[in-house]
């Protein structure tokens, strides 16, 4: 395989370089569509309680650091434009979460106020009725019968979903898998078009640039962004574990994140494994491949907890 080469416009294209380009393009497609599933999930739920705001803020700081590093290193305009898009998309998701948190908090306060006023108005009437009507013990029997009917109804309701809920979950996994395949196809097709039209070309693996100062600054910012990316998911993992639920989170969001990180790291490694090149890209490799472990942790939480009711059934 390493010896295989294809000629395009007189430029040699090795199999490794082709795979590097394909993986990089798939990673790009993953990042472009990454936040859409969570935006849609928040809209359908009318709430953003499932996602940790600390997770989004730390991730946003990592994207800002990445953008500053790209500008400082003088990377190609497409990379800088993509970094700007990341920051803009982060702001959209954070704004949506803040909006839903604010609106739902106001609704909760209003309901609490109305409930308090209603209870205050009804309390004297209820007290007189309970003291003057009915035989001794009738209130306890009535409450016991009501709670018994409620328990029976709850038991019936909890016994049915074990048969019915499996099918929607199965369909959801199929839909997510098809979405991942679609992103891979779009990414690979995008690379093929870019290569055929000459927009993408093989790049040399040797680095003759002498801008060591700029490289050092980019390295520092790269490590800073890697720390942010690694630390961003920790608040979300803690929140899921504390709530024992992943309700309100989009599974496809984390699947696209895993795909984007995996293909990004593969694109770098297939391009070159020379020591100097590897060390230059080490912070970005840490940021991408390291977060895959945390994404897998969240997948395990999805499997164990699911939404609140499924999690209670498992435990």
In short:
The protein is mainly alpha-helical and 315 residues long. The protein is 80% helix and 3% strand.
Describe the structure.
By secondary structure, this protein is mainly α. The protein has one domain. The protein is 80% helix and 3% strand. It has 12 helices and 2 strands; from the N terminus they run E-E-H-H-H-H-H-H-H-H-H-H-H-H. Strands 1-2 form a two-stranded antiparallel sheet. Helix 1 runs antiparallel to helix 9 and helix 9 runs antiparallel to helix 11. The longest helix has 56 residues. The protein is elongated. The relative contact order is 0.15. It catalyses: L-histidine(out) + L-arginine(in) = L-histidine(in) + L-arginine(out). This is PQ-loop-domain-containing protein. One of its GO terms (biological process) is vacuolar transmembrane transport. One of its GO terms (molecular function) is basic amino acid transmembrane transporter activity. Pfam families: PQ-loop.
Structure keywords:
two-stranded antiparallel sheet, 2 strands, elongated, disordered N terminus, mainly alpha
Q: What is the secondary structure topology, with strand pairs?
A:
Blueprint: E1 5-8, E2 11-14, H1 15-33, H2 36-45, H3 53-73, H4 77-132, H5 138-159, H6 161-164, H7 166-196, H8 212-243, H9 251-271, H10 275-280, H11 282-305, H12 308-314
Antiparallel strand pairs: 1-2
């Amino acid at each position: 395989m390493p010896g295989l080469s294809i000629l395009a416009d007189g430029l040699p294209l090795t199999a490794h370089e082709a795979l590097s380009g394909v993986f990089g393009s798939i990673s790009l497609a993953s990042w472009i569509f990454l936040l859409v599933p969570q935006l849609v999930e928040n809209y359908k739920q009318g709430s953003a309680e499932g996602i940790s705001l600390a997770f989004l803020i730390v991730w946003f700081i990592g994207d800002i650091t990445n953008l500053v590093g790209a500008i400082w290193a003088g990377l190609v305009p497409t990379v800088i434009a993509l970094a700007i898009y990341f920051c803009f998309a982060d702001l959209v998701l954070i704004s949506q979460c803040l909006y839903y948190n604010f609106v739902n908090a106001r609704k909760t306060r209003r309901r609490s106020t109305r409930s308090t006023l209603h209870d205050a108005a009804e309390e004297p009437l209820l007290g007189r009725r309970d003291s003057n009507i009915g035989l001794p013990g009738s209130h306890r029997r009535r409450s016991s019968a009501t709670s018994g009917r409620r328990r029976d109804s709850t038991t019936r309701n909890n016994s049915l979903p074990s048969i019915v809920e499996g099918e929607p979950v199965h369909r959801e996994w199929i839909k997510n898998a098809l979405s991942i395949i679609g992103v891979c196809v779009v990414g690979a097709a995008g690379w093929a078009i870019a290569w055929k039209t000459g927009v993408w070309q093989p790049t040399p693996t040797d680095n003759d640039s002498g801008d060591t100062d700029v490289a050092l600054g980019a390295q520092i910012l790269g490590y800073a962004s890697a720390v942010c990316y690694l630390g961003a998911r920790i608040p979300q993992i803690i929140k899921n574990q504390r709530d024992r639920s992943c309700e309100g989170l989009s599974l496809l969001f984390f699947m696209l994140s895993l795909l984007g990180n995996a293909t990004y790291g593969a694109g770098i490694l297939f391009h070159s494994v020379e020591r100097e090149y590897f060390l230059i890209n080490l912070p970005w490799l840490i940021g991408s491949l390291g977060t895959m472990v945390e994404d897998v942790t969240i997948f395990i939480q999805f499997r164990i907890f699911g939404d609140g009711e499924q999690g209670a059934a498992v435990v």
